[in-house]
Amino acid sequence: MDGAETILITGIFPTVPGAEAIAFGRDGIISIGQQDEVIAHASARTRVIDLAGAAVLPGFIDAHTHLINTGLTRIGFSVDLVGLPRAHVIAALATACRARGPGEWVIGRGWDESGWSDHSYLSRAELDRASRRNPIIAVRVDGHLLTANTTALQFLPPSVPSDQADAHTGTVREDAMMVLLRAGAPDEATMVDALHAAAHQAHTLGITSAHAMAAPPEWRPFMRTRGELDLHIILYPEVSALDHLRTLGIESGFGDEWVHIGGVKLFADGSVGAQTAAVREPYIEGGHGTLIYSDDELRRLIATADAAGLQTAVHAIGDRAIEQVLRVHAQAGTNPELRHRIEHFELPDEGQLVRAAKLGLCASMQPNFAANWSGHGGMYETQLGPDRDRRIDPHRAVLAADIPLAFGSDCMPLSPLYGIHAAVTAPHPGQRLPVAATIRAYTAAGAYLARMETKTGTLAPGMDADIVVLDSDPSAVPNRISNITVMMTFVGGTLVYKKERS
Ligand SMILES: [Zn+2]
Predict the structure, then answer these.
(1) Residue 138 has pLDDT above 70, yes or no
(2) N or C, which end of the chain is more exposed by having fewer CB within 10 Å?
């Protein structure tokens, strides 16, 4: 190809000191550096965009997303409960019920009692007030617990253990929760629409690649939209796919530039908010949370994936769950080249950090969590006490231990700039990172965890042209990063989003 398709000039390149311009096309980045060198790659058909001092970064890589859930809320299938006071949650669900026929499911997502004056969970009685004509389920912000109304509870088989579903309070967890989510699940066409909506939202936020954690009904929609989303998807099917992937000989890295198998996702424990994260010292209200697997079961799954050439992404939040994951990796002697990962990794102690580094494990963390729930009066302090609140989400110690650290959003909310702001301004010193390190965690490190670091995540000749343009350099405005505007997003050299001038 002669000449670049696009050249961006008069930019600031925070990750490439001294650069002023970049030339690229669908085949990748052609040149980056001084303006006069870069402009030499122009031809008659080149689009030259004058950035007037805007900042150019590698496109953001969100290392932990639930894109279909995000998209279902965008298209109005699910009711968005994020940030709503208790009374508004009930009102929003009641409105959704009125808009639907009798018996149609209403699914709300994102309520969070930690911000309410009364810190009790949403209850069955409250949902019954919204409607008994429709089955209603309202998923807590962490996705590890939901509240059901009386009509929805009738979809549970009588055999469900009482610790998974409380008919009085309407609180439902674990497998019982999955039964209700499946009963109210959207059809495939709706999930495809949701993915398109989520990809568009990702572009407006500067995201060019997303690691997508996906439950079984979501796998086909990801495959069906392959190449249509203008978003690189690194797919992490739930571990129930393991035997199928292994039988087919599908390893990490299988796929193309649009859908690429990252590995398999599994859960070692639950969440702090649902008091199911497995901790060594009890919660303030008592209880130590729950390990999902025995050591033998978890070792069998991780060893099987490892032998099949599949990376594992194990959700482990509490120190007791992290301990189990480290123990099992050590016993199984897993292959560090697969870059096995621990999701969330919220409460590791010093010794665990050293062992995780030795085992070659990677951390996939969400700085959003510290911003949302850490600090005085926050949910972590209420559930775990001030001591563990100060030690939770230790981004700084993870990097100091030389553990590869990628950041993601977990869609709480989907927004790298929110997460970067959170990591730079987090409540406790151990959670705070310099701007440059935070950007690396949201770009190059996400590529590294997906073994795509030779394709994307940095700006250099030969790399894919996955690029975001921001109105300011985050280092120049460290206290207002979340107010920065995404001006343009390029995926594979194609302009997929441009901010309209207001
Ligand atoms: Zn998640």
Answers:
(1) yes
(2) C
* For range 18-44, the mean pLDDT: 97
Q: How far is the CA of 315 from the centre of ligand 1 (A)?
A: 8
Give residue 213 CA to ligand 1 midpoint distance, Å. 7
Q: Distance from the CA of 312 to the center of ligand 1, in angstroms?
A: 14
The CATH architecture assigned to 188-449 reads Alpha-Beta Barrel (3.20)
Distance CA 39, CA 27 (A): 17
Distance CA 174, CA 254 (A): 30
Name the architecture of domain 78-183.
Roll (3.10)
Report the distance separating Cα 370 and Cα 42, nearest Å: 45
Nearest to 411 by CA among 78, 76, 110, 193: 110
Whether 162 has a pLDDT exceeding 90, the answer reads no
CATH ID of 6-58+463-498, from 2.30.40.10, 1.10.10.10, 3.30.1780.10, 2.40.128.130: 2.30.40.10
Radius of gyration of the chain (CA): 23
Q: Check if the beta carbon of residue 58 is closer than 8 Å to that of residue 457.
A: yes
d(CA 84, CA 71): 19
Task: Give ranges for CATH 3.10.310.70 in the chain.
Answer: 78-183
Is the pLDDT assigned to residue 502 strictly greater than 80?
A: no
Ligand 1 center to 50 CA (angstroms): 39
Distance 250 CA to ligand 1 centre (A): 23
Q: How far is the CA of 66 from the centre of ligand 1 (A)?
A: 6
**12: DSSP letter:** B
Distance 410 CA to ligand 1 centre (A): 5
